[in-house]
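Researcher: Here's a chain I'd like modeled. Treat it as a single chain, no partners, no ligands.
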Amino acid sequence: MKRSRIQSKKALTLAVVVVLGATWTAQAMIPAVPGPVFNLTAREGYIQTPDGGSYYMWGYANGAGTMQYPGPTLEVQQGDIVEVNLRSELDVPVSIVFPGQQGVTATGGTPGLLTQEAPANNGGVVQYTFEATHAGTYLYHSGTNAELQVEMGLVGALIVRPTGVPAGEKWAYNHPDSAYDYEYLFLFTELDPVIHEQAQLGLWDQIDFTQYWPVNWFINGRCAPDVMLPANYPLLPTQPYNCMPRMHPGDRMLMRCIGAGRDLHPFHTHGNNFLQIARDGRLLSSDPLLGANLATSDFTLLTAPGETADAIFTWTGEKLGWDIYGHAPEDPPEPGEYAPDHGKPFPVELPDKKDLTFGATYSGSPFLGAMGTLPPGEGGFNIYGGYFYMWHSHNEKEMVNNDIFPGGLMTMCIVEPPGVPIDMMP
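Model: Modeled as a single isolated chain. Structure tokens:
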């Protein structure tokens, strides 16, 4: 079977226009299904990619809902007794395994290689039960023919919230080193369309993972630029989750990263280093009383397949050498401003506008929160005068959709001026 290459420039152009024309509505609290009891159903469906692709998928659905890619993000509290009831409406049995969780018991269904399985064609329910003993970020995925079923979409995120957090604060773990203002999920996957076509046609004997060749790469089940559209966007009914992080200077952003596919995706944060504080649901610590004393600073996060990592990202404009607000020395500082650069002048003379090439997100001014004049038809998509930083895979081939750039495993982080609302979940 020859590999098809769908390269629709028209589809990509429309996707970019839709994304840039939408109001920035990234949610700063991760949308999730609250537990501790969950009812999931494995179903078939389709997802869309910005290059015009439509791919047959399997996915976990929340109860009677639509299958989704990735599966519903499950949220529980530390100490909860978690119960997950699974049934399969597919023509094959499926299951769930929970890496990082201890003492998982499975009842019902039929025996499988790794755990009890939900029989095919709605043939019964399997129940998984465990105590969520450790706070953190976790992956769940099918343990049945996992090489195929994970590729087909049977993956999702599990978030365990810590106990004992002081009122009014947000921690990822049981220590203030994990405190944050906003949090975002980054669940990384990839897709080989040939395998999905073969599965749709039932050509099981032709599926050959030694020839695996992904051409689409995803954050939270969407490729760029679709990942920057609002969550629950109506044109992407099976891909409800977006990812476009937003913050103010000085805020602490929690990055919950999950390697949910079969490849390693080195994720690069422009603008500043992050501080990795945890891996696989455990704080990087030599002693619980010392917090994340083994945390590491880096600019590219290596999350191997099956791993999770938590990192804190912050940005103040530190050591740029000039005042990001254009203050005079006697002006009062802004919240989160890097004080040593307060009042320092912009280091170069700005060129004439006729000598500049403008991007859609340029505000017309180098200063945060300022809006300058632009030629007709230029800019217009940076309504608050924020700074846009591209965050992307450092494996550059993953920044495309079927060889069309820009796309793939990429999004934008926006540093907004103080006082600009960062949308929260209701």
